[in-house]
Amino acid sequence: SELIRGFLLSGMPCPSSCPPGLLALMAPGLALMATFSLPSQAGDRRALPVEKPPGVKGRTLILLDVNTKSPVRIISENFLSLQLDPSIIHDGWLDFLSPEQAAPAAEETLPRLQAGAGHRSPGMPVHALSRASPASLGNSAFPLGPCRSESFYIVRSDIALDKQKGCKIAQHPDIMLELQREKAAQMHLVLLKEQFSNTYSNLTLTARSLDKLYNFADCSGLHLIFALNALRRNPNNSWNSSNALSLLKYSASKKYNISWELGNEPNNYRTLIGRSVNGSQLGKDYTQLRSLLQLIRTYSRAHLYGPNIGRPRKNVIAFLEGFMKVAGGTVDAVTWQHYYIDGRVAKVTDFLKTRLLDTLSDQIRKIQKVVNTYTPGKKIWLEGVGTTSAGGMNNLSDSYAAGFLWLNTLGLLASQGIDVVVRHSFLDHGHNHLVDQNFNPLPDYWLSLLYKRLIGPKVLAIHVAGLQRKPRPGRVIRDKLRIYAHCTSYHNHNYVRGSITLYIINLHRSRKKIKLAGTLRDKIVHQYLLQPYGKDGLHSKSVQLNGQPLAMVDDGTLPELKPRPLRAGRTLVIPPLTMSFYVVKNVNALACRYR
């Protein structure tokens, strides 16, 4: 319960009485950026050539300063979002998230899930489709098509906390949870078979399922974004909107506050329905959807997002260009997806490769070039991101090692101006998720929670000078030491405004020393050092914070995330193969004093 709540409400934990919600993982302003040279341009990370003075033989010392006068980027308050896989409906987990269910039983595991969603922070997308027949779940049904074609998203809602007090936390006997885990494990095999064969069975979302999903989001203080089925086509290949109109009217009759999207990875429709839809046609479909929304008073001003394309290869870029020409002004943000590696062949060493970490940067530039050509200044969302595709790989995608990719992704996206990132996924049938099927947090959950609690929306430029021993071509220190900085979150009342948060990824197999300089010199620092816990090392699914293992205190309570205070002026020692956050207190940074 406390899990999702931990991501909401400004990233700060909420009492166990907070209402349910499994979705939102978006926290107020979270982006970071790194600049490794004196110029203040974001993203420039060339190491400074610095003469090695006498006495530094045999060690590496990095001098670090931050430009505190003005931010180089300001990211959305909803920067970090979370996605729920559609499998939560057809494998049965939606019933265990539903706030209106109150079966008499012990609280056991579920409150852990629900408490996490009650936090008022930027939310997340949810993918949810139902395999059940209409009769089994409700009176109305909305065929959605193959699983890959639609999705739901959740972002932060401005509902008052008082409203949430009327929502009930679902409770289920232990035996029900055990049976559900068995059912989900069986469905996992079915879904994997579909994924590997690239063939997907049709799914139906019923009115009852939609009610559960919306109530869950509403009671959690979240906002639902619903992706309609784009695979229903007329003979001339235009979108058949009749089913969508029924769903819109039903949602409006219930006064559901929903934003909308149309389809998922439309560049792959030939695989799913045997015929392709080009970007221009999808643009016309979006224009049609906008017209439908304007005809319904409840949704006349609703937000619309798209086209949610796949990885921007050459043909996908051409698809996006066609879409932007027709519907660039119709959508409120342009969306796309990115997965780093094929989960079927991933190895732990893949997560340490700097070239892999940098692949996202090139993709961002490709998307931005097209968007800025047709609609300069339009917001861009990375609406589906995971370390691996194909459901991920056990003991890799859900391990400590995967955190290097995830944390670096957050830094790159923020530094390059991406407004929102949607992490796939909170809970699903694969291994890219943030919690396991016992609702225990995995390493990326703790990373995300710390990120939300400590990081605000203002991105700051970093200046780094490195003193290196025996530098060699191709082995520059900045490749494996990645530093990002931000104003500390305004919602974190442990730190006064004007404080700065750094986060650092050390991919070296040796420790690195950082000396804070300039405006950061002689300031007290709070360290949050995350390391793997247990004998599995980088494969570990548990982490320790400053040497203390992290785990739920009980089913409804997150542990206190205690920093380690470092005395003013102390050199930061970054252990090998680790991720860490450092709050530099009382800097009184001009860029960070005001919202």
TrEMBL record:
GO terms of biological process kind: extracellular matrix organization
MF (Gene Ontology): hydrolase activity, acting on glycosyl bonds
Family: Belongs to the glycosyl hydrolase 79 family.
Entry-linked InterPro entries: GH, Glyco_hydro_79
Protein name: HPSE2 protein
GO cellular component, one term: extracellular space
Protein origin, superkingdom: Eukaryota
Organism name: Erpornis zantholeuca
